[in-house]
Amino acid sequence: MSPIHVRGKPGEVAERVLLPGDPGRAEWIAKTFLQDPVLYTSHRGLLGYTGRYKGVPVSVQTTGMGAPSASIVAEELIGLGARVLLRVGTCGAVDEGLAPGDLVIAQGAVPLDGASRQYLEGRPYAPLPDAGLFAALWRKAEVLGYPHHVGLIATEDAFYATTPEGARAWSRFGVLAFEMEASALFLIGKMRGVRAGAILTVSNQIGDPELAPEEVLKEGVRRMVEVALEALLEV
């Protein structure tokens, strides 16, 4: 069956894929970091590009917001030949040691989302990234010297339902930050036998009245993408 949402064809998607949620960020990544990027899909605003990074084929595919959308995109990418799925996105921090623009390399994701729950049919589960991809991300962040943190994140569904107090309560269990896609990607990676991981940029502390200044967030995202692409070269 041809993919319904990611309207690509076999051969158009690289084995290594970066997964931003935002189509604008997907376009920026492709045109800033990839050689000769080609748009292979724009259906539903899920922009997807394939180009080369240091000679290696890499795709950048928009997931949209939330685990349900990301899981659809992941399943269809795998059907199109993707074998490494790396989320690159933003997160809201709950650990006070994280500053705007810092990077977070996910060691695991607390699955507070409904997509993971449906896949698992309610079973308890601990979604983890691919060990080799996780190690490559950590190693590259160390080599490049960018401020970064390694540990647990939480994946949630309802952005506006979470209270600052409720989110920060998770910090005592080691959760560094909240986002909306990683747990489902990690789970699908294990189920389908592909590598999945996540690296994030801190946009704010949850409960802050505003996001980080635009220049701080933009530099954090640039660093995140650089680390991600360098890690992809090793897996």
Automatic annotation (TrEMBL):
PROSITE patterns: PNP_UDP_1
Keywords per UniProt: Glycosyltransferase, Transferase
Record-annotated Nucleoside phosphorylase domain positions: 16-229
Annotated CDD domains: PNP_ThPNP_like
Annotated Pfam families: PNP_UDP_1
Gene3D superfamilies: Nucleoside phosphorylase domain
Domain of life where this protein originates: Bacteria
Coiled-coil region: none
Enzyme Commission number(s) of this protein: 2.4.2.3
InterPro entries per UniProt: Nucleoside_phosphorylase_CS, Nucleoside_phosphorylase_d, Nucleoside_phosphorylase_sf
Catalysed reaction, written as an equation: uridine + phosphate = alpha-D-ribose 1-phosphate + uracil
GO molecular function: purine-nucleoside phosphorylase activity
Similarity-based family: Belongs to the PNP/UDP phosphorylase family.
Protein's name in the database: Uridine phosphorylase
Originating species: Thermus aquaticus (strain ATCC BAA-2747 / Y51MC23)
